[in-house]
Each structure stands twice: as structure tokens, then as C-alpha cells.
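Board work, copied verbatim: DNA mismatch repair protein MutS
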Amino acid sequence: MALTPMMKQYLEVKETCKDAILFFRLGDFYEMFFEDAEVASKELELVLTGRDCGLENRAPMCGIPFHSAENYISRLVTKGFKVAICEQVEDPAFAKGIVKRDIVKILTPGTYMDASFLDESKNNFIMCIFKEDSSNVGGLSFADISTGEFYSTSGILKCGNILDEIAKFSPSEIIYNETLEDNLLNEIKERYNISLTKYSNEYYNEEALESVKIQFKNYDSNRYDMEQLRSISSLIAYLKYTQKNSLSHIDTLETYNIVDYLVIDTNSRMNLELTETLRDKSKKGSLLSVLDKTSTAMGARRLRKWIEEPLVDKILIEERQNSIEDLVNNLFVHEELKETLKDIYDIERLVGKISSKSVNAKELMSLKNSIGKIPSVKEVIKPLTSSFYSNIYNNLDDLNDIYELLNKALDDNPSISVKEGNIIKTGYNEEVDSLREAKSSGKQWIASLEQEEKELTGIRSLKIGFNKVFGYYLEVTKSNLSLVPTERYIRKQTLSNGERYITPELKEVEEKVLGAEEKLITLEYELFAKLRDTIETHIERMKSVAKVISEIDSLSSLATVAVENNYVKPTINEEGIIDIKDGRHPVVEKLLSKNTFVENDTYLNTEEDQLLLITGPNMAGKSTYMRQVALLTLMAQMGSFIPVSSANIAICDRIFTRIGASDDLASGKSTFMVEMWEVSNILKNATSKSLILLDEVGRGTSTYDGLSIAWAVIEFLCSDNGIKAKTLFATHYHELIKLEQQIKGIKNYSVAVKEINNEIVFLRKIICGGTDESYGIEVAKLAGIPTEVTDRAKEILSMLESENSSSASDNKITSVQSVNKVVVDNSKEVELLQATIKELKEKINNLESLNKEVAMDMSTSKKTKCKKQENPMQMTFEDVEGKNLLKDIKELDILSMNPMEGFNKLYELVNKAKNL
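↓ predict structure ↓
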């Protein structure tokens, strides 16, 4: 059996889009066949039927009305599918044989522009990765076809760098070259729910390179390396393949270096909850939710970008600060500016629709009204004195010519559809006016004809109607058929309750009316298309204005937040100092009742206060405090004011966090493995200009393993051969507080605790000094653990502490009390004890002298043999505890002790020595 001509045509088209669901236009429906029909019927809950196709079995089939296709397409694209739209590409009236059909657009998660699919406050990026598996050199490109933005970078791109950029741009689709290494691809699949498309090297060729040169007005071949060009050209080729148009609004190529912005890795973005919360991925509860008071969609997207890409250039940061300060100090100007901005629509995405030929007349009216507000914006900012606003006032294009053109051409209340007429304003085109008059007068004549016929025939129920089959007709009910003048009325249709007639006069007017209406609709569409194409030639100007408006709106938002929440302008330094007075967490303080958030100071530098070791119980606020410092630093580098009484913030190159942990069961990684992977990433990539937040390092394994790891990490961070990055290190290992005396740069801090009526209250205040109390049982009580359980826990804790502190001595003396009974009032024993301690002191002094000599010899030897030791000796627990024991012995005042005090002290020293 042979395929039918229609099914043969379908399969030929389907062959060109194998990875997409093909919507094949047949009349008023989009039909899907075979596997596409089976998938679509399941995903869209459609009835699966069949159709004879010339094969032995009927082809599975399902369909949707073309006029409601957007809803179905949006559902498929949201689920990650691609949809290819196949339309008739010739007039059936002139077709020979089957009407030609072809794909007019392929809709994918990264290229779909329907308003129901897009979040107006968020970009919808598509990403292209080009990277050879044998090299770390690669190119990345990002495009948002709804706004016309295009960004690209290249260089040494390790797996972590690429994952960080994915986290920053949040693309909904990634295309990648055939030779991309599997481990990177697997990491992307594990971490992100993103549509992935492999592209062949055919996307990269001489034609593609020429296409890039034509596409971007600022193209400069000397600025791009080969990897970057392959990434750019491949993405442009893919966009043209799917969109089937010129993409005229994507005309500016913005290249960047990763180090141009504060680098925030994937885990840190999640932990700090910059744009969405960890728990439910919602905006509410994130930093963005606090800072976003924007009036326009363009401003909302710009502000999100500023949060995702804080600056590292002091001059640029201070320029933003000054622009915000200008608004803060001019409240009336600021309020007027916000009111003006509220009336500006999304110019960026309207421009994208103009380029894709999908804009309608109402959207062009929105563009006109938005452009009409630009002179008002310029006038409002006139009193502001900062360089940013002065430059805008003097140079911003008001697009007045575009406004005048749209105002003159478009009807004030146009139809939504561009093929229904009523879109061109009266007075714009003489022919339109003439046809509109003919149409209007003809309809008036028809209306008057109805009244005349009622009077002539005496049929009061007579009415004139219209349908597409018969045109205009006179309808008479059965009860009045005897009154019909058969010599003038020509029967056209018999109904169950009456008859329909026409007259020569009616058909003559109908021809004029319908002819005028059809011509008018065609002419109005032609004029609209011409208007749209004219506006398209000014896309670059409109995009430039849109960018400025988005920046003004973002600055206005940050100024609003600063005023409402009592934020302060921080000082920015490049000396590595973070000095915060009365800092507050910008998100948490909004969740608490007014003035209940506990403020905290922070001082960090790269010398004496390089690592703050923070101890204290869970639920006391350590993690909130650490996140607070990171967020305040990030906000300062955005150029934002921050919630402090004063602050001097160092520019950081990277922010790393390791806060909280969870099993990654899907990839077989335990809590401890995930934690160690994150710590490893930090230690490998941090620099002396970085800010590091480490919370409970080592807690996922045994106590001594975890303590050892935490200790070693601290040494690495603080040693002269290590990173020496500014670090906040929260821990439950209280033994680590002794490192303050041993390692330069460490300062102990803890969370203040107060006991009220035998109940522990966490004061949320970070104070100098460490603590050796965990208050774990108190936290359990706060969490609602039953009283009988917490009371029993206290008993067990007391028993364990008692057992741990009372180990037996070599001579089998088991308690201090038994020793006391032996030595009370025994002067010989007192003399012996004093002599023993004196002898110990002498030996200690001799040992210290010997140690100094050995140390000097070793130092001299090192200098002669090598300038730098590859594996410097690390301190051990014995080193620190041994030094403390020697210190205790040296400080003994034996002459002031009675026998019981002396033996108690000796017993304590012996136990300490045994436990080393």
C-alpha cells in the first residue's frame, strides 16, 4: 500500500524536525500523527484517534483547534518539549495538487515568547556551550530573544566555572557541541532541570561566521578567540533555524570576563537565597523579594541581574551609590519618578515582538504610550545632580519621531487581531477613509432597508441577517409567509420556523459593503505591516532607551528600600577590611516584628582578624549572622545601601559558603561527602580577596575525624602558605577555641546566652570570646522534646561527664577524696609534694632551653638548605595541650597551698598528662 499524498507530505516535513512535536495545519486544526500524537495525547490529555494514511494500519492521530493552540503549546514547552509549527505556505486557490506546507517556527523552552510562558520579571535565556573534551578552553554564549540581549565569554572554563555561569543566568535551554565531555554533561543533568540539545559541528562554518558579522553591529573580529566565535555562531545559527527570521533586535554582542563580577558559585547562590528560597524555590523570602520595588518589568529584570552579578570595580560601585543617594536625598523627585515609571510598559519585549513580526496593534499602542513618558522622565530627573542622571538628561533619546508616527497611524482603541481591521486611525490614509465610509454607509442603508421593508410588507417581525454562506438575507417567520411579496423576494433557504429571502437591491448593496470591508481589512493589514517594518528600523534606539529606563527603575527600587528600611550608604575599600557596625540581616529582619532583630558588629581583615571562630549552640543565630555578613557585602558591591549604622566594606572577588548539608542520594553521595566536596571547591578556588563562610565543617563524620579536618582547614586558611581569605567559621568543636593563642589571625567569638529562672535564653548577640558550652539539651527543649526526655538527657550527660573526668591513676588512687584522707595534716607529705613540684619546674625550664636551642639549629639548617619548606610541620593536639600543661605547672604557687590543695592539683596535672 502507498502513502496518501497528505501523509507523504507530513512525513517529509517531520524528517526535518525529528526532535520536535510537529503541529501539522489541516484546515482549522493542528494535527499530530504517529508517535507525536501518542506523546501529545498523553501530555495534553487529548483523545487519541486514527486516520487512514495508506498503510495497513491507521495512523494514530490527535488534534487541537488552531485558534487555541497557544495554551497547548505553552504546556508542552513548559514540560521541555519542542513544538514545530507547520503551516500552508501557498494560497489554496492557486495550488496545483496538494497545498504546500512547511515549518514556519520551532518553539523551544529557550525561544518561546508567549506572554503566558514568560515571567516578565525574569529573563528567559538560551545558552550555548562550546568546549572540546581534551581542553579546558571554551566559549559560552547566552541569548534572550524576548529582549534581544546577547552575552558571551571565553577562556579557561573548568566544570565548576561553567556550572557557576549556568547558576547565574538560569537558562531554560542549553545547546552543546558533540565533543563536550561526559562528566560536565552529567553534572548539568544532575544539578539542573534544563532542556538539553546536542548540535553538530555543521552549525560552525564560514557561512555561520559571516552571519555573526552581519548580525552584530559592534562585531570586532579581533576581540574574540576561536572557541568564543564557535559558541556565538552556533547559537545564532540555532536561533535562526528555530525562529525562521532575521532576529534584527539581537544586534549588540556584549562580551564579558567572569572576573568582571563578584563570583558566586552554585552552592553559595542557593545557600544565600539570592533570588529564590531553598525550601520552595519561591521569590518570597529571598534577597530579591526585599530589594525589588521596581515599577517596570524591565527594571525587575535589571535588578535581578545586579543581584546575580555584583560589581568588583570601585568606581562603578560608587557611581551607583551616588545615584541612589541622589534619590534618597530628593524624596519628592523620587516619588514623582516612581509614578512616571509605573506607566511604562515592557519596551524590551515589545521590541522583540516587532522583530519576530508577532506584535499586534494594541502592543504598538503600549509602545507608543511608553515612549510618550520618556520626556516626563527626563523632566523629573532634571534637579538631580549625580553624573548618571545628568548624563541621561543631556543625552537620552526621547524617540519623539516614533511616538508621532504611531500616534498618527494607529487607532486609539485598535483590535487585538491585525487581520480584523479597525487598527488604522481615520485621517492616516485616504483609501482607508473611503472604504470605511463605504462600509459604514452601506450598513446604515441596510439598517434603514429593514425598516422600509417592514412598512411595505406589514411584517413587523421581519429582520435582516447575515452569514458567511448566503451573505445578507431577509428572514420571515411561517406565520407571516402569506404577506411576502413573491415578485420581489427570492427564496434562498427554508427553515423549520420560517423562510429566508434576498432581493436584487440587497445583493447590490451587499456587494459594495462586503467588498469594501474585505478591501479595508486587507489594506489596514498592509499599512500595519509597513508601519511595523518602519518601527523595526529604529530597534537599536528603542533598546538603548529601554536599558536606561531599566537602570533608572532599579536605582529607584534600591532607593525606596533604603528609605523604607533605614539603610545606610557603606564606604567601599580595596584594603581587605570589612567593618560593620550594627549589621542586620536584610531578609530576616523583615520577617520579624519591628525593631526586634538583634544587630551585630563584624570586623574582618587579612591580618589579625582574618578568621572569626564562632562557637555557640544551634538555633542561637550563628548561621543567620554569617549569611548576614555575606549578604551585606554582596549588597554593598551591587552599589546598594545596606542595613547597618555604618560600614566599611572591602571589595571581594568571590563569596563561598558551606552552610547546611543534605544527602545527595540520587548520585550516591552522603552528607559528609557533599560537605567535603564543597569544602574542597572552596579551598581550591578561594583567594586572599575572597569571603568564606564555613558552618560546622566536619560534623558529618566521627568526632575526632571531624575535629581534625576542621582544625586542618583552619590552619590552611590562616597559614602564610595558605589562602588567608576573610573567613567566618562556625563550629561545635569547642577544642578549636584554643587556636586563637596558637595561630595568627584567629579571633574567638560566640553567641551570648543568658540563664533566666533555670531556662537558657539565646540573645542572638555575637560577642568576643569562645564558649565550651553546647546547650544542646536546651535547644531540644525549645524544639518541643518532652520534659521527661530532656530531664533524662541531663542525667546521662552528667554521668558521662563524670566518667570522662575521673580516670584512674597509675597507683590506683581513684578519687581526690581518698587522696585527701591520706595527706591531711601530714607535714612530711607536704614537704615531699613541694619538692616534687619544684623539681618538675626545674626540668620544664631545662626542657624549654633545650627546645629553643634545637629550634634555632633547625631554623639555621632550613635557611642553608632551602628557602621554603614544601610540607611545613602542622601543630597537633599534643602540641597545644602540652604547652598548656607546662604553662599550668609553671604558674603553680606551691608555698600558698595546703596539703589537700597540693595533692588535688598534682592529681589534676597527672590526669592531664595521661590524656595527652
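The CA atoms of residues 350 and 363 lie 7 Å apart.
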